[in-house]
Every structure is written in structure tokens, then in C-alpha cells.
Amino acid sequence: MKPAPKIQAVLSLYHLGERGTWEHHLFGALRAHYAPAELSGLREDLVGLRTVGWLEVVDQRMHRGHILRRYALKASARKMVEHQLDLGRYLPLQLDALVEAGE
Q1: pLDDT of residue 90
Q2: I need a labelling partner for 8 at 20 to 30 A (CA). Which of 36, 49, 74, 89 fits?
């Protein structure tokens, strides 16, 4: 199962580091894995992630009347992504036992 496009965008920006990438390059990369309908809300997702402090705009330009943004994952959000990528380290090893015990 593939992650939601918003999550895949965050993971991609994590791997790209502090320089980030232009949103249209991100869309281009994700188009190979997601249907157009799945990507329809991605621009709003990126703006929302910026609003909550996960992303920063490291460059912005106008092109034919459209705003183009270069996004990067903020350093403070990198720790959260690292945490999410290593769930085994943070989940109890005996999770099945806890579920069976009703905890």
C-alpha cells in the first residue's frame, strides 16, 4: 500500500534535504506513482504543511502569472519524520501481547 500523496511529498522532501525542490518537480515525480485525481489536493496540502510549520518556502518566483514555490522540510519536522520512519524502535516489542491482554 502506498502512502497518501501528502505523506510521500514529506518523505521526498526529507530525502532531498535543506535545498528542497520546486513544487512542480515534486508533482512530476509523484505523477509516476499516483493518478491525477489523487494529486488534485497536493498544492493545498503543501500550503497547509507550511502553515503548521513542517515546510518552509526556500524560494518563490512568478512564471506566467503563477506563483512557483520551492519547498524544503524544516529542521524541526525532520525529527518527527525520523521518528515515523523508525516505528519499530518506538512501539513496544510485545504489542501483540498488549492487544491480547486488552491494554
Answers
A1: 56
A2: 89
C-alpha cell at 85: 520512519
Q: Which residues pair with 21 in a beta bridge?
A: 71
**0.90 exceeded by the pTM?**
no
Give 30-82 pLDDT, tens digit per residue. Answer: 999 999 999 999 999 999 999 999 999 999 999 999 999 999 999 999 888 88
CB 25 within 8 A of CB 42: no
Q: Which fold has domain 5-100?
A: Arc Repressor Mutant, subunit A (1.10.10)
DSSP string of the chain, one letter each residue: -PPPHHHHHHHHHHHHGGG-EEHHHHHHHHHTTS-HHHHTTHHHHHHHHHHTTSEEEEEEEEETTEEEEEEEE-HHHHHHHHHHHTHHHHS-TTHHHHHHTT-
Ordered by start, the domain boundaries in the chain are 5-100
d(CA 50, CA 102): 39
